[in-house]
């Protein structure tokens, strides 16, 4: 990204909630390392689709899927899953496989893309909420796949809205979500002049979304191929059909809550792998703690 | 089950949902390498502090408090494992004994291995056998949770002080009847101060027929079939009644002693003569008035007579029970508070007299709600002095705070029925032979007719049992206004 070119339009897009019935659906996934074995590591992945219809939230949760990843099997596992999800391999732009430490995130991304693809083919005249941005060309966001998902949604008159909880985009040295404006929420501020570094491509237009009163604002990417009026209408329908607090839609919050692993679940999965699969978890000593004692895990430790 | 923690004589055990453990259960924590085992009793079952459970619960109801509708695609079937962990419980246990080479000791100073120890339920029959609770004179108290019988040894009641306490209608009187009939079977002499006339039909079956104890039950109702001839009275017994029941001052008591001596010398010990003598006695007017008012109390009680034919010699009934055992029921129902105290003073005085002269070996005294007729100083007497004479008392009450703390401290056995009131549980937990945690935790959850036996009778292994049914006519039923309409 070339930060020096990034600007925010000063004129806000003021929003009015539109209450006509429209489905709001959200996707999120999460991953966690369950433990280590002598050969590799055990990870779990889970995803959730949540949708709001007739004022009720419903969900469909997939997982947990547990994988035993080793240096030997990681490429095969990833390739098999990729094929299972998308029939044709959607390798990243470099065509290489992730290293074992990146694997948990990549597996979760794979599930997330599959869930997003499913929603884009099933939701009509609605809004699909993604967690993150619409930047493609990275290992976990192949451009062709993201384009396909967005195109499928458009075909069904559905708009994809991607909310990022964190952003690094800055204007005059300040994060775009920290800038304060005198406007009355809900409103959008369009970010212009963004030029991502190749091979990354922006498939959405970027906005700062301040949907409720208070200090919270989020980066919001909306499918670039959608007309401006449709983009605004989609956010207004979101405001009219979902609960929004702290500028964040409830549907997406629930998707996140439902897929996140709790400590209890981690213990249960450890119990499962030791009982059902006969795997023995290894307790590796924490070298940081071992070497540095109370200074072993500082907040700014790299 | 896994051993988790030991603090003092409290052990924490982690238990999983397929291992059902309840309060009161006994567990054996066995360390085979140390060749020792701990006998522990469950005093509480809590949720294990599994991390993440709070989030799990919050997540399950984010939709305004209602359960969120949805589907879970869980191909590996992890959900039952999550529930399994979530429902894990922490079993809090109290160490009761150590088993080493098949013998028991009360030590809890050793620490069993956390990794090696095996934990299993200890069936009550095994525990009863290990602790040798049954003894040579068995009394079946009732059934335990695991369908075995709790049998105690009658000799563990011998020479002891017992307390039966619990809320109303939990089965206290039923248990005391059970103990009485069993003691009678072992030829013991039992005396009951029956406040509500509950023991009058101890000799009848529930359908009103005579049972096996009929001939051994002697019901004495004051001023009816229980009267005392003044001539038969011992001066110090009568003085006891006057001073303690009728609060006669010391000076007046001294004067009464002189009057009594004078009557005795003249062989004129009758109620009428006593009245006449007080009237004509040369003494201070106030003393005479004091003596007269007490005299009228004695006369009005109807408990005293000059007619030797209608007088009852309590010794006769007590001697009858000497050979084959029996129960003398002192029926205090419909007796006024003052008269009740007179009768109790008389009976206790008589018992001490008979026991000190070895005319009786020992008696088991059952006293219901004793605070209603027992004078203050008798409490200490009963647990110390009278015990040495051979009066072995069982107090029965639904108000545990009416029994003094020192009585609890010296109680050998406590039969505890349900209590929910914190204050009541506090009082009972002062007993020396029991720990407060056990009382608070177990007694609170006891269903009606279940009793927690504590003390010598169970060799200090607190055991819960459902008191055995007894085919005896019930007399202690509360009179109800709406009984016929229901």
Number of helices of chain A: 7
Rg of chain B is 29 Å
- Beta content of chain B comes to 15-25%
Number of strands of chain B: 21
* Percent of residues in beta strands of chain A: 25-35%
Portion in helices of chain B: 25-40%
Class by helix and strand content of chain A?
Answer: alpha+beta
Q: What is the CA-CA span between the terminal residues of chain B?
A: 50 Å
* Largest sheet: number of strands, sense, barrel closure of chain A: 10 strands, mixed
Name the chain pair whose interface involves the most residues: A-B, 26 and 24 residues
Helix vs. strand class of chain B: alpha/beta
Order of helices and strands of chain A, N to C? EEEEEHHEEHEEEEEEEHEEHHH
Rough outline of chain A: globular
**Annotation field: number of helices of chain B:** 15
Radius of gyration of chain A, CA atoms, in whole angstroms: 21 Å
Structure description:
- The complex is a heterodimer of chains A (302) and B (486).
- Chain A is α+β, with helices and mostly antiparallel strands and 302 residues long.
- Helices cover 29% and strands 29% of the residues of chain A.
- Chain A has seven helices and 16 strands.
- Chain A has helices at residues 74-86, 103-122, 143-155, 228-241, 250-259, 263-275, 287-292; strands spanning 7-8, 13-14, 24-36, 40-53, 56-70, 127-131, 135-136, 159-164, 170-171, 174-175, 187-192, 201-202, 204-210, 218-223, 244-245, 248-249.
- In chain A, strands 1, 2, 3, 4, 5, 6, 8, 11, 13 and 14 form a ten-stranded mixed β-sheet that branches. In chain A, strands 7-12 form a two-stranded antiparallel ribbon. A two-stranded antiparallel ribbon of chain A has the order 9-10.
- In chain A, β4 and β5 (56-70) form a beta hairpin.
- In chain A, α1 (74-86) packs parallel to α2 and α2 runs parallel beside α3.
- The longest helix of chain A is centred in the middle third of the chain and has 20 residues, at 103-122.
- Chain A starts with 6 loop residues before the first strand and ends in a 10-residue tail after the last helix.
- In chain B, strands 10-9-21-20-19-11-18-17-12-16-13 form an eleven-stranded mixed β-sheet. In chain B, strands 1, 2, 3, 4, 6, 7 and 8 form a seven-stranded antiparallel β-sheet that branches. Chain B has a two-stranded parallel ribbon with strand order 14-15.
- With 486 residues, chain B is α/β, with parallel strands linked by helices.
- In chain B, β20 and β21 form a beta hairpin.
- The model of chain B has no long low-confidence stretch (mean pLDDT 86).
- Chain B has helices at residues 53-60, 79-86, 124-131, 172-185, 235-245, 250-265, 271-280, 285-301, 314-324, 337-356, 376-383, 385-389, 405-410, 422-428, 436-443, and strands at 2-7, 10-15, 26-31, 36-47, 69-73, 89-100, 103-105, 118-121, 138-143, 149-153, 162-165, 189-194, 217-220, 228-229, 304-305, 326-331, 363-368, 391-397, 413-416, 450-455, 463-467.
